[in-house]
Amino acid sequence: MAAKQKTFCIICGKERNGIGVKNDRVLEGIRWFKRSVTHNESGNRLVVCKECYETYKKSKKRFDSRKKLYLVLGIIFAVLIIVVGKSVASILFGIVMVLFLYSFAFFSYVPELALGAGPKQDNKTVAGTAHI
Ligand SMILES: [Zn+2]
Predict the structure, then answer these.
(1) In what order do the strands lie in the sheet with 7-9?
(2) What is the spatial distance between Cα 103 and Cα 90, in angstroms, rounded to a whole number?
(3) Residue 47 and residue 10 in contact, taking contact as beta carbons nearer than 8 Å
């Protein structure tokens, strides 16, 4: 039953070795969803291959700044709603608005790498790396 685990690059989608992706809450959520809802958890290990490392760095940067932008937008909206509404309901609505906008950024989610440093740890299985 123990089929050899495959290692896929999250950028090019090819079966490659590379730096492991850090297991975080978003990936855990996706895995939970696959396991309990769609029942197609593949157990593949996620990495970023050497060729895609530069692309990964760029999209990670883009994702981080987008996350900040949406958070700032959400807070501006929330403050406006609370100032205009001046009620408990408007405060709640404001909070929902922040979360709603913030979650938008995650449509282009880019996970952290397990090691953070450069692509020198090829072919090593790191504890806590993500499997999807
Ligand atoms: Zn790649």
Answers:
(1) 7-9, 45-49, 18-20
(2) 20
(3) yes
Q: Tell me the pTM.
A: 0.67
CB atoms within 10 A of CB 104: 14
Ligand 1 centroid, distance to 79 Cα (angstroms): 42
pLDDT digits (tens, 9 = 90+) for 44-58: 889 999 999 999 999
Residues in the chain: 132
Residues, CB within 5 angstroms of ligand 1 (ion): 9, 11-12, 49, 52
Say if residues 108 and 14 touch (Cβ distance below 8 Å). Answer: no
Q: Is 56 exposed, middle or buried (0-12, 13-18, 19+ CB in 10 A)?
A: buried
Q: Which residues contact 47 (CB under 8 A, 6 or more apart)?
A: 7, 8, 9, 10, 16, 17, 18, 19, 20, 21, 129
130 CA distance to ligand 1 middle (Å)? 16
